[in-house]
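User: quick one, fold this
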Amino acid sequence: MPKQKTHSGCKKRFHLTANGNVKFARPGKGHFLTKKSQSNKRKLRKGSYISGKNAQNIKSLLAK
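Assistant:
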């Protein structure tokens, strides 16, 4: 049986932690930053985790 290939878009956007959680960077910090408040931009700096069925789908795309 052939191996499953890693999805190219997913490997750029998501990372697996040591515990198996799926981590991603918050979108919206690329441009138009003058319109956004300082507190909003501060919140965008931190990453976040995906849980549930979405995490299972991403793990399958990452071939893990």
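User: anything notable?
Assistant: The helical segments are 8-13, 38-45, 53-61.
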